[in-house]
Specification:
mainly alpha, single chain, about 75% helix, about 0% strand, two-stranded antiparallel sheet
């Protein structure tokens, strides 16, 4: 159905980002031998090429209604997804800057070895997220809501496993489960938000979702570092608390929308009170 197609498309987009997060650092490590500016120059060139390719792809949709109507996105429809996206990404981003410190303190090893081991943990997270989004989600017929709930449960389970981890293998498994959970959550968020707003607002919805995630990537590392200064397990506890709070907020907002509007589906742009809006 329509929801499954959107979930699959969102999963493939997320998988592309996940694959890039794996290949990118390896690519930079190979290029740094040609000078420290080589990775930066290559990144600029790749972005330019991607922009040219995107510009060459013909658009399959056309604007509907007036300019004001096209840009009038009903935030109530997507707010539950924005809240959950911000919370989940905040929790995950809080773990990123403190991962090596967690490995070092938990395993009582030197700094150099801790950085190397932390890279294994990061690769496990990224790889599982990629596999789930590229291979697993497209084969399933789960609704966006169920994808998100399965993902949230996996993230919390992985965080709990990391809290009791005794060695490197435990940490790798724990972060792999967290990565798998994020692999379920991300396509569910994007597909769900896009489904409730209509086909003509896809770009706006994607922009709002990426803005929420970007804001979380700004706040998360700062919050994670502050939490680590209080406790070794602080970032993990923060991630669990943020994910839980985001899920509760999502559920509460969805219940409110369901009681007030029913389907939570936005009308097409350019329509008012069930009829096409008049154009000047």
């Amino acid at each position: 159905g329509e929801k499954h197609r959107r979930s699959t498309a969102a999963a493939l987009v997320g998988a592309a980002f996940g694959l890039a997060s794996i290949v990118g650092p390896l690519f930079a490590a190979l290029l740094v031998g040609f000078g420290f500016a080589a990775p930066v120059a290559s990144a600029c060139a790749l972005i330019l090429i991607a922009g040219l390719v995107a510009r060459a792809i013909p658009a399959k949709t056309t604007p509907v209604g007036s300019r004001a109507a096209v840009f009038a996105l009903p935030l109530a429809a997507v707010m539950p997804y924005l809240v959950l996206a911000f919370a989940v990404v905040l929790g995950l981003s809080a773990l990123q800057p403190t991962m090596a410190f967690l490995v070092q303190d938990r395993l009582a090893i030197g700094t150099t070895l801790a950085v190397q081991y932390a890279s294994f943990v990061s690769v496990a997270f990224a790889t599982c997220s990629f596999v789930i989004q590229a291979l697993v989600v497209p084969m399933l017929t789960m609704s966006p809501h169920r994808l998100m709930m399965v993902g949230v449960a996996a993230c919390c389970g992985g965080i709990g496993f990391c809290l009791v981890a005794a060695d490197l293998a435990d940490l790798v498994v724990g972060f792999a489960v967290i990565g798998a959970g994020f692999g379920f959550v991300q396509p569910g968020l994007l597909a769900g938000a896009m489904h409730v707003t209509g086909a003509d607002r896809q770009g706006q919805v994607a922009g709002h979702m990426q803005s929420a995630m970007s804001a979380a990537w700004i706040v998360g590392p700062l919050a994670g570092t502050a939490a680590y200064s209080l406790s070794i397990e602080g970032p993990l506890l923060l991630a669990a608390a943020a994910t839980t709070a985001g899920t509760l907020g999502y559920s509460a907002l969805m219940a409110i929308v369901s009681r007030s509007g029913g389907s939570n589906r936005a009308r097409p742009a350019g329509w008012s009170n069930g009829r096409p809006a008049s154009r000047p």
